[in-house]
Amino acid sequence: MTESPDIVVLRRAAHGMSTTMLAEAIRERLPDYEVVRPGTPAGEREAAAEAPVIVGHGIDEELLEAAEELELFACFSAGVGHLPQEELAARGVAVTNASGVHGPNIAEQVIGNVLAFVRNLHVGWERQRNHEWRHYQGFPRELGDSTVTVVGLGPIGQAIVERLDAFGPHLIGVRYTPGKGGPTDEVLGFDGAEFHDALARTDYLVLACPLTETTRGLVGRAEFETLPPHAVLVNVGRGPIVDTEALTDAIKDNAIRGAALDVTDPEPLPSDHDLWRMGNVHITPHNSGYTPQYYPRVADILARNLGRVEETGSYDDLENQVV
Fold first, then answer.
1. Can you give the residue ranges of the D-isomer specific 2-hydroxyacid dehydrogenase catalytic domain (predicted)?
2. Catalytic member of 57, 175, 230, 238
3. Would 323 be classed as within a structural domain?
4. Contact at 8 Å (CB) between 197 and 144?
5. pLDDT tens digits along 134-171
6. How far apart are CA 224 and CA 229, in angstroms?
7. The pTM is what?
8. Is the terminal CB of the chain with fewer CB neighbours within 10 Å at N or C?
9. Is 267 a catalytic residue?
10. Do 32 and 130 belong together in one domain?
């Protein structure tokens, strides 16, 4: 390429987040590019008319029609189901996503929750609230002597496994294509018998998979019956992967030791739901995906991809390319 193209950063992200920081992060990494963040829809259409690169959460029909020179739409969310993929493909527009940007922070949250249960910190927190200095034990085993099953070995699952590995537990990975292998000691598929065999050996069950026909209701009454009574569930995937009623009953009946839920079904969890009142259930409001490094990581992906375009002159075979 003889000159660097304009990059148009759209005004709003999902949930109304501003993209001002994203524009600044891109400018830092690509100082030779003109990074434009228009303040109005009309300004976006005007800027997009000659820009080969647009960065945003979504692109509507009117903006796509205006973007006559568009070569790359860099979506800054991991999911792209909301995009007009057929129209983009028909135009020959490459599309990338932000897969992987959530890995480190979600992995940190999983590790924190697992360690809280390894050391029964929730018991200590409760006694602190009661101003009660009384020793407690009841630690089933150290993390290094435990078995952790991670369902989903995408970028988030791999980041979780990488950090867990330092503690030395036996690691079981569950994925759609076990033949691909993975970074765990064992890699299994979703076959019922095989999955239940893993559950029977599991101390910590971590759900880091997307919601699909296969994973919807993956963990229900039968699975809670298979898990050992000292097992702990950690869900950072999607709420409907777990049967909420079955989970609630399993906690009440001491069929498992506890749960850490960043996602629930329904979501938000009703304020009068029994899970709120259980001391061995840790609930966070679907915020494990937040990180101050989100936009810098998105900008890193874009910078690497545009570096590749400069080298090859092509928008093919880019990192995280989905179209």
1. 46-314
2. 238
3. no
4. no
5. 999 888 899 999 999 999 999 999 999 999 999 999 99
6. 9
7. 0.90
8. N
9. yes
10. no
